[in-house]
Amino acid sequence: MAAPSRHVGHCIQRNSRLLANNLEQLWSHRSFGWTPAVRQQAAEANKESTETIVIPRKKTWSKEAVLEALASTVSRDPTAYSYQFQDDPYLSPKTSFESRLYALTQESGRSAAKYFINSNPKFFTQEFAEPRIPCLMPETMSLCLEEVSEEALMERINLRKVTAAVDMYDQLLQAGTAVSMETAHELLDLICLYNDRDPAQTEGPQVEDAAAPVEEVKTPVEEVKTTGRRGRSAPDAVVAWKESNNAERIFNLLPERDTRCYSALIRGMVKHGAFAKAFSMYTDMLNNRLTADVHIFNALILATPDFIEKYNDRWNGITDLLGQMSQQKVRPNLMTFNSILRALRRCGQSAKGHSLHTLNEMKALGIAPSLATFNHLLAIFFRPDSFGQSKSSILQEVLTELAGASLTCRDPDDVVFFMNAMRVCVESKDLELGYKVHSLVEVGENWRLLGGGYHRNIYYGRFFSLLCMMENIDVVLNWYRRLVPSLYYPNHQEMLDLLQALDTDNRLDLLPTIWKDIRSLGQDNKPGVAKELLNLMARDTHSPEVQESFAECALDVKSVFIGDRWKPGLGWKPYALSHITTLLLRANRTQQAWEMLKIFKSESSVPDGELLQDFLSACLRERSPQRAVELVQLSAAFCLSETPKLAKRTLAEFNLTEEQRAILSELESAAEPPEGDNSG
């Protein structure tokens, strides 16, 4: 057997060599479509590159590479609460109200801790952290420099202590010490941003409005340079610009004033409602032969609708500012065009044509629109008076342009785009468009642009309402399991939408399961939800298994109306008594239904005749004549017109004693109206 084996081995070696030679010849003649000149250039480039190759000693990874790799191995658990609530499982919120309260409590705790540290810095002089990570250390908020110097002034500016910074500036002037222009710029930015007040006095809790974006915290200088404004506060929390405040006083004391000084005051005036004064300050700057910067124009454009009353004149004011930008050779940026579109939202019917022209001009300059740009376009085109038009056409074009894009936040108003886009889908009842919006949210980390918990909850609530309105119930329940509670908490209106979706697709057998979720989400205290649930369960008769589950659910709903020592009840309503009793009768729970009749009497509520007929049928099934007699007596006590019918039926269908027959005959004759009485 050795000879054949050697022969096979030689054949394999010979064939391998032939195959290798053929592959080498084939590879050497393969051109991949390159021309000879291109191949020669590539060969020369490769030759040069081989001479200059530098082999790195180690591979450089980003600091987050390991965390990103680990994060890619796990996915979101749809049955778990959101990650920010998992630090303390006992306090994990279960309702939208609790989640909002939880977030406010966390922020309140941080504010209290900062206040205590700032008020008692002497107790926090030691750092026990090991190892010491500077970015995780608490910020030093106490003043370290007490002498009168420009360094002490900058320390107060960086710590946002407005009053202390102004006092230090005045002391420097009294001492005859000159303050550099850079420090003066920083001081004016700080005073104008906070309107000459310390942040602790001016910044209270802000109203979470659907149109008011949640903006990230920036340094005083960055905040003014970026937008010249912050999120809109409650009307009573807005502090108007004061006449001759410290900002104007320090501005007038400066030996020389440049564009940066005017920019701080103009944006501060716009931010705090002094629109006419801002335009007057801009005119004064031009008279001093200074040119404005892009931040000044952005603030003035944003203030134009408040400064000019007539719709038609507002656009003329905006174009005048744009013409001055061109004359002063100031290049617009993204915030310039977003300010134009935001102002156009208050320019009447002519805003549509001007907004499209603005968008074209924006693209001609090579400035990519942000989500805030498209949000302003939606607000301009999607108006209540645009009936008869394709309301969602503009959104369709926007989504076509953004399809598959990984987005970043470039404007504070970016966080309201998805919320308002989903509103367009709901009001247009366009399910396909809603799916397109949500698919864009799921690209990369675009979900971060949904904003804070308030905006995110509104977005998912609108998306879920659209699904309940337009989608099949199986798909709705699939999305329901994916979204709740890991991403959002539905409110009572969205739970009503889910109940209506179950009714539309005839899946009422799932009502008891949904009721358990309603209780866990804290929506069982809404009378409308309990009423709709009882109406759907009591409307039709179902199979015995379903009726049994409905009866158990009805008893659970009963506890909601009664309440307990920890939670007050809703109080008995006639519809609740009637529906719960009906559901118990259909499940052959006569004893529990009879207890409900006692509640009728204690609540001075009157059962209807149909319910009493159902009761009498249940007594007949159980062969309980005594209970039937008691039922007729109860009907007579309520003075119901159904009493004679109940008495006749009981006399005809039950085996009664003479005493019982006498009682029923007496009740029947007493309840019947006398002959000749036609009173209704």
Main features:
elongated, 32 helices, 680 residues, 61% helix, disordered C terminus, mainly alpha
Describe the structure.
The protein has 680 residues and is mostly helical. Among the domains are: 144-202 and 211-261, no CATH class; 291-367, no CATH class; 368-489; 513-600, no CATH class; 606-673, no CATH class. It contains 32 helices and no strands. α19 (417-428) packs parallel to α21 (453-470). It is elongated, with a radius of gyration of 38 Å.
- State the end-to-end CA separation: 119 Å
Q: Low-confidence runs (pLDDT<50, min 5 residues)?
A: 1-12, 22-35, 201-237, 676-680
User: What gyration radius follows from the Cα positions, in whole Å?
Assistant: 38 Å
Please describe the biggest sheet, giving its number of strands, its sense, and whether it closes into a barrel: none
Structural class of the helices, strands and pairings?
A: mainly alpha
Number of helices: 32
Strand content bin = under 5%
Overall mean pLDDT stands at: 81
Shape: elongated
Helix content: 55-70%
Number of strands: 0
Would you spell out the secondary-structure blueprint of this structure?
Blueprint lengths: L1 H28 L6 H16 L13 H7 L24 H24 L30 H9 L3 H13 L6 H14 L4 H4 L17 H7 L19 H8 L5 H13 L3 H13 L6 H14 L3 H17 L6 H11 L6 H14 L6 H11 L11 H10 L14 H12 L2 H11 L11 H18 L2 H11 L8 H13 L6 H10 L6 H13 L4 H19 L11 H13 L3 H13 L6 H13 L3 H13 L5 H11 L4 H14 L9
Quick structural summary:
The chain has 32 helices and no strands. The N and C termini lie far apart (119 Å).
